[in-house]
Design brief:
Blueprint: H1 19-36, E1 48-50, E2 55-60, E3 72-79, E4 82-88, E5 92-98, E6 100-105, E7 108-113, E8 117-120, E9 127-133, E10 141-148, H2 149-154, E11 160-163, H3 166-174
Antiparallel strand pairs: 1-2, 2-3, 3-10, 4-9, 4-11, 5-8, 5-10, 6-7, 6-9
Length: about 180
C-alpha cells in the first residue's frame, strides 16, 4: 500500500472562440491591414516560381497576408516559349508588360504585344486558354494578371490543368524544379 496519495488536478481549458468572436477578430485584422498594411509589393520580395502553368511571380494572393486589397490576386507570367494550358471560368485582366505573343482562347488565336490588355471572358463552362511567346526564349514575353476574388468566387470558378508548361515538364524530367 502506498504511503501517500497523489492527486492530479486538471487545468481548465480555455474556452473556444465562437464564430461571432472570430468574425470580430477577422474584421479588426482587415481594418488594420487596410490602414497599416504594406502599400508597395517589392519585386525582390516576390520570388518567381516555376509552376505547371509557367514562371509566375505573385504580388497579391493566397500567400500575401500583410497588404490591403486582399480580394485581389495579382501576378506576372514570364513566357519563354509557351504556358501550360488550363480552363477556368475566366474573368481575368492581363496587361502585357513586354514582348509579343498570342493566346489560344477556346481554339481562337488572339495576338497581343507590349501595352495591350487581354480580357479573358466569363463563360459558364469555362475558358480554355494557353499563351505563347512569338519571340525567342531569350526574349520572353511578360504580362501581369489581375483577378478579383469575389467575382471569381461568385461564378464558382475552378481551374483544370490540361497541359503543363514545357519548362515545367523539362524540369520534372530532370528530377527537380
Amino acid at each position: 500500500m502506498a504511503e501517500f496519495e497523489r492527486t492530479r488536478t486538471r487545468e481548465k481549458e480555455a474556452p473556444g472562440r465562437s464564430s461571432y468572436e472570430l468574425a470580430i477578430q477577422l474584421d479588426r485584422e482587415f481594418a488594420e491591414r487596410q490602414l497599416m498594411g504594406r502599400i508597395v509589393c517589392k519585386f525582390d520580395d516576390c520570388p518567381q516560381t516555376l509552376t505547371r502553368q509557367g514562371r509566375l511571380r505573385n504580388y497579391l494572393g493566397l500567400t500575401t497576408k500583410d497588404t490591403p486589397l486582399q480580394d485581389w490576386v495579382v501576378f506576372t507570367h514570364e513566357i519563354r516559349t509557351a504556358s501550360g494550358r488550363h480552363r477556368h471560368q475566366g474573368g481575368l485582366i492581363i496587361y502585357v508588360i513586354d514582348g509579343k505573343g498570342y493566346s489560344v482562347v477556346d481554339g481562337e488565336r488572339v495576338e497581343w504585344e507590349k501595352g495591350d490588355l487581354v480580357l479573358l471572358p466569363l463563360r459558364e463552362k469555362g475558358v480554355e486558354h494557353q499563351h505563347f511567346n512569338s519571340d525567342t526564349p531569350e526574349k520572353p514575353a511578360l504580362w501581369m494578371a489581375f483577378i478579383h476574388g469575389p467575382t471569381r468566387d461568385y461564378v464558382a470558378s475552378e481551374m483544370t490543368q490540361s497541359e503543363v508548361s514545357p519548362e515545367y515538364k523539362a524540369a520534372e524530367e530532370k528530377g527537380g524544379r
